[in-house]
Specification:
Layout (H helix, E strand, L loop, with lengths): L16 H8 L5 E5 L5 H14 L7 E5 L2 H15 L11 H7 L1 E4 H12 L10 E2 L2 H14 L2 H4 L6 H14 L3 H8 L7 H17 L2 E2 L1 H13 L3 H6 L4 E4 L7 H10 L6 E5 L14 H4 L1 H4 L4 E5 L1 E2 L4 H12 L10 E2 L8 E5 L2 H17 L7 E5 L6 H10 L3 E4 L8 H14 L4 H8 L7 H13 L20 H12 L8 H13 L2 H4 L3 H15 L5 H10 L5 H4 L11 E5 H4 L4 E6 L16 H15 L2 E10 L1 E5 L6 E4 L15 E4 L12 H19 L1
Helix pairs in contact: 1-2, 2-3, 3-4, 5-11, 6-8, 6-10, 11-13, 16-29, 17-18, 19-20, 19-22, 19-23, 20-21, 22-23, 23-25
């Protein structure tokens, strides 16, 4: 209990007034509207520390984040905050107190609960969790077995089918309505999708496999159960949620069931940074928080510790055009700085050249490359810039593409461990089998069926007569799987298991992938990471639910002193980051906002929020680049192009917040003449030609 206890003053000494109000709040539901750069993490971690200092049991505090790394960082900061408190008012062991807090992502916490209570709902203890890519592969297998592409020509591909399924589960909106609202071009396939989704569910159940959506669905359903629900609710007195604007309806339902009256519930978020609608997240959760919890307290955080005021003036104006939002106006704690720059380029090539020039100029002024970033709406937008940077020898790292765990070689290695953990997992069985020379998809499917018919005993493969190309590898393959299956009895650590798979796979990698040397280094780093896991099951769960995105994160290695590189990133991947200088590419209608998101006010508003996120990554220098020509076809001297309008989010009155300049020394291209004068010219040409025939 915390009622009546006071928060130690030295825990509040480095907070501003709004942060103090949020940290010391007691009782009912609390919404902290934390604008970009306003110390969201500081406020949330100090609130957790204050709860503990006022007597709350850390083991009864649930802290939900959207990445494992965010949860780990927050708990470290909770410990640091607790160390500020002089005993006896503070906990005797701040480290143990912070570690007592239950922290993690929605999916990770759900997986933990299902390991405890899963047997009650028919889940075996060895169930495995598959990531989005593996879920798509299962969908594809079922799609083929049902012969849907043959029965219904142009039936959607696996990624689209999986996206539809996930949206239905996370939003709670039925198939027909989801297709009408979000996938109208798929309405004719509704019967096939319905059959596919039912069979997909049955396949997962038969193989003891859960996808991301299942984790949330089971947690929500357990909370709704009249017997399990009260028991789960009693586990926690306080529930705190980071990035609340990124929650979907299913996650909001979980929170409502955890704290039905809102007592002890704290959510932190910024409606202006709600940019994940394509994943099923809805800004309505944060906008309607006070409707859901009528006695909620709202505390806005508006003092920005990141950006200079001219940048914030621009960002405030941009988000001010939103159809609906929670009122706040960011103000800077730092002195005034340079105004944002609107850079007009003739085309994407000149845009790339300008960015490279300016990056080098800023470097000469003392700004490291690692303090600069180039942001873009879609990953492919950076292609001309990447060519220019490579040409000039400017080092860069690109984010927002394929993630580490999604690379084929990492998925190959992990599939061996998944199959040993859950021999019912036919997807993993087929994956590892097709790595062997001479075994194709059909042979792998037959072997997977043989394993299933033998009650998942690897002895079923003993009498298999492998093709000539496979004979060299088959004995070692079966031996490895049996070794992994008996790893617990042999006291084989996770690191030893990963090493065993890596050494076997080393003989195959040249056959199945290019760039083998780079892939081998990745797998060596994966082996290092595995040493941190106490058992194979937790390692697999962590790798699936919150994997590292690169070998740098994999090794938890900060940039070395002499390692300097420019960051290239999609805007989505840059959320939560900040840089001294930011270049936003392609600030024209069709890119920002995307021409794929113009069909509704809701989607345009999300594109506006995405623009806001890009602008608020900058500390001091902000460049918004507008290439005036967009080439549609490249044909040498007769290149076809169109003229691009400045992004609607940056035009009009907002444009006055910029200084403007040309990217190059040449005059900018003039816009085309209006259609009326062109028609007159054509008419005059016709008259002249007609006169020639007389």
């Amino acid at each position: 209990m915390t009622d009546g206890a006071t928060t130690p003053p030295n825990l509040l000494s480095d907070l501003n007034e709004d942060q103090r109000i949020a940290v010391t709040h007691e009782g009912g539901p609390l919404l902290i509207v934390a604008g970009a750069g306003t110390g969201k993490t500081t406020t949330l971690t100090h609130r957790v520390a204050a709860l503990i200092a006022r007597g709350a049991d850390p083991r009864r505090i649930l802290l939900l984040t959207f990445t494992r790394r965010a949860a780990a960082e927050m708990l470290q900061r909770v410990e640091a905050s607790l160390r500020k408190i002089d005993t006896p008012s503070g906990p005797s062991d701040p480290r143990m107190a912070a570690r007592g807090v239950v922290g993690g992502t929605f999916h990770a916490v759900s997986a933990r609960l299902l390991r405890q209570f899963g047997s009650g709902v028919g889940l075996p203890p060895d169930f495995t969790v598959v990531d989005r890519a593996d879920a798509e592969d299962i969908v594809n297998a079922v799609r083929g077995e049902l012969e849907l592409p043959q029965k219904m020509p142009k039936f959607p591909k696996k990624a689209t089918c999986t996206a539809v399924y996930s949206r239905i589960v996370n939003t709670g909106v039925g198939l027909t309505e989801t297709l009408e609202n979000d996938y109208p071009h798929l309405i004719d396939f509704s019967d096939g999708l319905r059959d596919l989704f039912r069979s997909y569910r049955e396949r997962k159940r038969a193989e003891a496999v859960l996808d991301y959506d299942d984790l949330l669905l089971y947690w929500d359903q357990l909370l709704a159960d009249e017997r399990a629900g009260p028991m789960l609710r009693k586990q926690f007195d306080h529930v705190l949620v980071d990035e609340y604007q990124d929650t979907n309806p299913l996650q909001a339902s979980i929170l409502r069931q955890l704290r039905p009256d809102g007592d002890g519930l704290t959510v932190v978020g910024d409606d202006a940074q709600a940019i994940y609608g394509f994943r099923g997240a809805t800004v309505r959760n944060i906008l309607d928080f006070t409707d859901t919890f009528g006695d909620a307290t709202i505390v806005p955080l508006e003092l920005n510790y990141r950006s200079r005021q001219p940048i914030l003036d621009l960002a405030n104006d941009v988000i001010g055009g939103a159809t609906e939002r929670l009122e706040k106006n960011l103000r800077a704690s730092r002195p005034d700085g340079p105004r944002p720059m609107l850079v007009r380029a003739q085309d994407e090539a000149e845009q790339a050249s300008f960015i490279a020039d300016e990056v080098l100029a800023l470097t000469e002024q003392g700004f490291e490359l690692r303090g600069q970033a180039v942001l873009f709406r879609s990953s492919y937008h950076s292609a001309p810039l990447e060519i220019e940077l490579n040409r000039r020898g400017i080092p860069f790292h690109k984010y927002g593409g394929i993630k580490f765990i999604e690379t084929a070689h990492v998925k190959d290695l992990v599939a061996f461990l998944r199959l040993a953990e859950n021999p019912r997992d036919s997807l993993s069985a087929r994956r590892v089998l097709t790595l062997l020379p001479g075994i194709g998809e059909k042979s792998a499917a037959r072997l997977a069926d043989r394993l299933r018919e033998a009650d998942h005993d690897f002895a079923a493969w003993d009498d298999f007569n492998p093709p000539a190309a496979t004979k060299e590898f088959w004995p070692g393959f079966v031996k490895l799987l049996r070794q992994l299956l008996g790893a617990d009895d042999a006291w084989m650590s996770v690191e030893e298991q990963v090493r065993a798979v890596r050494l076997f796979y080393d003989g195959l990698i040249e056959f199945v992938h290019d760039h083998a040397a780079t892939r081998r280094k990745d797998l060596e780093q994966l082996e290092v990471l595995s040493a941190r896991s106490s058992d194979r099951r937790s390692f697999l769960t962590e790798m699936t639910l919150d994997p590292p995105t690169s070998t740098r994160e994999l090794a938890s290695r900060p940039p070395e002193e002499d390692e300097d590189f420019l960051t290239l990133s999609t805007i989505h991947s840059a959320k939560g980051l900040e840089f001294d200088a930011v270049f936003v590419m392609n600030c024209y209608d069709g890119a920002i906002p995307s021409d794929m998101s113009l069909e509704s006010d809701e989607k345009i508003d999300e594109e506006r929020r995405l623009c806001y996120v890009a602008l608020t990554r900058a500390r001091t220098h902000l460049y918004c680049c507008h290439p005036l020509r967009q080439y549609t076809k490249r044909r040498g001297l007769s290149d076809a192009y169109g003229f691009t309008p400045l992004s609607r989010f940056l035009s009009g009155d907002v444009q006055s917040r910029f200084n403007e300049r040309s990217a190059g020394g040449e005059p900018l291209p003039e816009k085309p003449l209006s259609t009326e004068p062109l028609a007159n010219v054509r008419s005059a040409v016709d008259q002249r030609l007609d006169s020639m025939w007389d």
